[in-house]
What we know:
11 helices, binds zinc ion, globular, alpha/beta
Amino acid sequence: MLQFRRIALSIAGSLALASPAFAGKLAIVIDDFGYRPQTENQVLAMPATISVAVLPNAPHAREMATKAHNAGHEVLIHLPMAPLSKQPLEKDTLRPEMSQEEVARIIQDAVTKVPFAVGLNNHMGSAMTSSLPGMEKVMQALSRYNLYFLDSMTIGNSQAMRAASGTGVKVIKRKVFLDDTQNEADIRVQFNRAIQLARRNGSAIAIGHPHPSTVRVLQQMLYNLPPDITLVRPSSLLNEPQIDTSTPNTAPPKAVPPTPPRNPFRGVSLCKPKQKLQPVYATHFFTVLSESISQSTLLQYYQQQWQGWNKKA
Ligand SMILES: [Zn+2]
């Protein structure tokens, strides 16, 4: 009898352990931490599986990273990277033409300003992440730290995964942006998309921002998750299968003269501006980008599907 009970308990135990493997794993990261402590504190009051990404040069960077860590949240460095479009730029925004030493200095500085970080993701960065030479410098610098790279996927043809190969740096990718608009109904739709993708693919990473509307939606939806969805930290997804959908973009980066920037990529999400505009010198990146995109219309279509830009996906 005792033996039977032991066996029954052991079966029950292994079932309990096994069940999460069948669930869709959902990781949520809230970016742009360090500027709005009041809203950010509301994020930190949510389940500890919600992770946060801190801008290293934000006024409350160290304070919020420390608070997040103490409350059990996973902390990432939210590293500013140059966008293609005209955006206000944070101090020390990584640009493809920077030297290896400059990139390494900026990453080292970020590591000291965002204590407890275990990963790093890009703030904006469509110009930087689409440059293979640029991202190779980032991965080279990152390989000195035990930091994973969460690709925010602000552009379809990101070179992050390609650049990381052989460096030992683990790369994972964002699937859904929760709050391209700050309309609660839209955010709920995006949250449900993330759930569906987690279910379909086994896991999904969603990125949001510390907007009051995002916080309200999370406060409602996190506590009413479907039973087959498990909230996880991004670091628990580092060994999930990853597919690199990029095409090589090896054009050497170089400084280009200033021209009026433009942004042909409607629907691509970028973190919201906080300051007045400064020009971004973007001509070269458009050339590189249009070349890479024109390589294959079909490929581009699949990239967009994969990134979930097509709302029907
Ligand atoms: Zn951001």
